[in-house]
Write a structure and sequence with these properties.
Number of strands: 13
Structural class: alpha+beta
Largest sheet: 5 strands, mixed
Shape: extended
Number of helices: 14
Order of helices and strands: EEEHHHHHHHHEEEHEHEHEEHHEEHE
Radius of gyration: 36 Å
Distance between the termini: 78 Å
Helix content: 40-55%
Strand order of the largest sheet: 6-5-4-7-8
Length: about 400
C-alpha cells in the first residue's frame, strides 16, 4: 500500500478555516481517505511549515537552500551549572562561602571542577560558555580574579569548614573520625610548601606537598590540611587531634588511621586526651605478639577472634584467604622469574667457556634480594651451572601469617 500524506484546508462561510492532516491510500483497488490529526488550532505559519516539510520529505536538504538568510546562534549552556548549583545549595555550600563576590567566585571554582577539571584559565572560558555569571549573579571575571580568590579561600578556610560542619551536625557531633594522607608532586620549584619526600606518585626528583584529609564516620570530609612535602605521615596527626578538641569533637572520640599513621607516640597523645583509636598493626608487630604468647596462630583460623591483653588493648584477628592466596601467587611468580634468569645465565655460561660463574651467581643473588625472596631460597653453583633450591622450612615460616590482619 502506497499512502500519500497532505494537508487538507477549506473555508466555511468565508470565516472559519478547517485544516486537517490527511492521508490517501489504496485498498482493494479503491482510493480511501483517513484523517490523522486536526490542525485547525495551529497558526498559518505552522501549517505552512508542515506543508513545506511534506512537499520536500524525500529530500529535506532542499529546505536548507530556502533558509540562506537565516542565522543560528547557540546560547550559553545552563543545565550543568544550574544542577550543580542546586546541589551546592542543598549541601549548604553557598551559605558556607557567603553571598559576597569572592564567595560566588569560590562557588564557581567548585562548579567548574565538577564540570571539567582544569586550570583557572579553563574555568574562565568555561564560565563564558555555561552562563555562570547569570546563574550565580556575578560580573565577568578573569583568571587573575580566580587566583586572588584562592588566596581568599586560604584565609577563610577554617571559617568555611566550621560553617559546613555546623550545617551538617546541628544536633550531635560525630564520635568517629577517619584520617589519612596523600601527596601531590610539582613540575616547578616555586612553592613554599614544596619539598622532597616520600613520593607516592613515583616521580623521583620532584618536589611535592603532603595533604591530610579528616573525615567523619561516613567518609564525609570535615577538614583538609596541606603540609610541607617532607613531613612524615605521623607528624601530621597531631594537628588533627587539636582540630577535633577545639572545633569538631564531642564527648567520646575515636580516631581511625592505618598502621603507618597511628603509632606509639600518636597513641600516647590520643590517650592523653581520653580519646580512643582503631588501627592495624604491622607484620613485625604480629610476630612479636606471637612470640610473647599474647595471640596464637590458631586464632586466625576462626571467622573472627578478639583478645584483650594485660594493658586493656583489644586485638581483633582475622585471616583473609583471598589475600593469602594472592601473596602465595606473588611469591610463586617471583621464584619463577628468578628461575628464568638462572636458565638464561646457565645458557650463557655453557656458550661462553671463559665467562665467570661468580658474575652470573652475583646477578642472581642480587635479583633474589631485590625480589625479597632471599630468606627462603638458596643459590649455589655446581660445575658451571647455577642451581636454585627452596628452603621449605624457611618458606613455611615466612608464609605462616599470610593474609593475617590484626586491628
Amino acid at each position: 500500500l502506497v499512502a500519500i500524506m497532505y494537508v487538507d484546508s477549506s473555508k466555511s462561510h468565508g470565516k472559519y478555516t478547517r485544516s486537517l492532516l490527511r492521508e490517501n491510500y489504496r485498498e482493494d483497488g479503491k482510493v480511501k481517505h483517513r484523517t490523522i490529526a486536526n490542525l485547525s488550532h495551529c497558526s498559518v505559519e505552522e501549517i505552512d511549515a508542515i506543508k513545506l516539510a511534506l512537499k520536500h520529505k524525500k529530500d529535506l536538504t532542499k529546505l536548507v537552500s530556502l533558509s540562506k538568510d537565516i542565522t543560528l546562534h547557540q546560547g550559553s549552556s545552563v543545565g550543568a551549572v544550574c544542577t550543580i548549583h542546586d546541589i551546592a545549595r542543598q549541601l549548604g555550600l553557598h551559605k558556607a562561602l557567603g553571598p559576597t563576590r569572592e564567595g560566588k567566585l569560590a562557588l564557581w571554582q567548585v562548579i567548574a571542577c565538577v564540570i571539567n577539571q582544569g586550570s583557572r584559565l579553563s574555568a574562565v572560558r568555561l564560565a563564558g560558555s555555561h552562563a555562570a555569571c547569570d546563574v550565580l549573579g556575578i560580573d565577568t571575571f578573569n583568571e587573575d580574579d580566580l587566583y586572588k580568590n584562592l588566596d581568599w579561600l586560604s584565609q577563610k578556610q577554617q571559617l568555611i569548614e566550621d560553617r559546613l560542619f555546623a550545617n551538617t551536625y546541628t544536633d550531635k557531633k560525630p564520635g568517629l573520625f577517619l584520617y589519612d594522607v596523600t601527596s601531590s608532586y610539582f613540575e616547578g620549584s616555586c612553592n613554599e610548601l614544596g619539598a622532597f619526600g616520600y613520593n607516592r606518585d613515583g616521580k623521583k626528583g620532584k618536589r611535592q606537598i603532603v595533604i591530610g584529609l579528616l573525615c567523619d564516620e561516613w567518609g564525609k570530609p570535615v577538614s583538609i590540611e596541606v603540609f610541607k612535602g617532607n613531613t612524615n605521615d605521623t607528624k601530621t596527626f597531631y594537628s588533627q587531634i587539636n582540630k577535633v578538641i577545639k572545633r569538631f569533637g564531642g564527648n567520646d572520640i575515636t580516631f581511625v588511621g592505618d598502621r603507618g599513621m597511628i603509632k606509639g607516640p600518636q597513641i600516647k597523645e590520643i590517650k592523653k586526651n581520653s580519646f580512643h583509636y582503631i588501627t592495624a598493626i604491622t607484620k613485625k608487630q604480629i610476630e612479636t605478639l606471637l612470640k610473647q604468647g599474647t595471640i596464637q596462630l590458631e586464632f586466625f583460623d576462626e571467622d573472627l577472634a578478639e583478645i584483650e591483653d594485660d594493658q586493656g588493648v583489644r586485638f581483633i584477628l582475622r585471616r583473609n584467604p583471598t589475600r593469602a592466596e594472592e601473596i602465595k601467587q606473588s611469591r610463586d611468580n617471583k621464584l619463577l622469574a628468578l628461575e628464568h634468569l638462572a636458565i638464561k645465565q646457565n645458557k650463557y655460561l655453557s656458550e661462553h667457556p671463559r665467562a665467570q660463574i661468580a658474575t652470573a651467581l652475583r646477578k642472581i643473588e642480587e635479583r633474589a634480594a631485590k625480589l625479597k625472596i632471599s630468606k627462603w631460597i638458596t643459590v649455589t653453583a655446581k660445575e658451571r651451572k647455577i642451581v636454585i633450591q627452596v628452603d621449605k622450612v624457611a618458606l613455611a615460616e615466612e608464609s605462616k601469617i599470610d593474609g593475617c590482619y590484626v586491628l
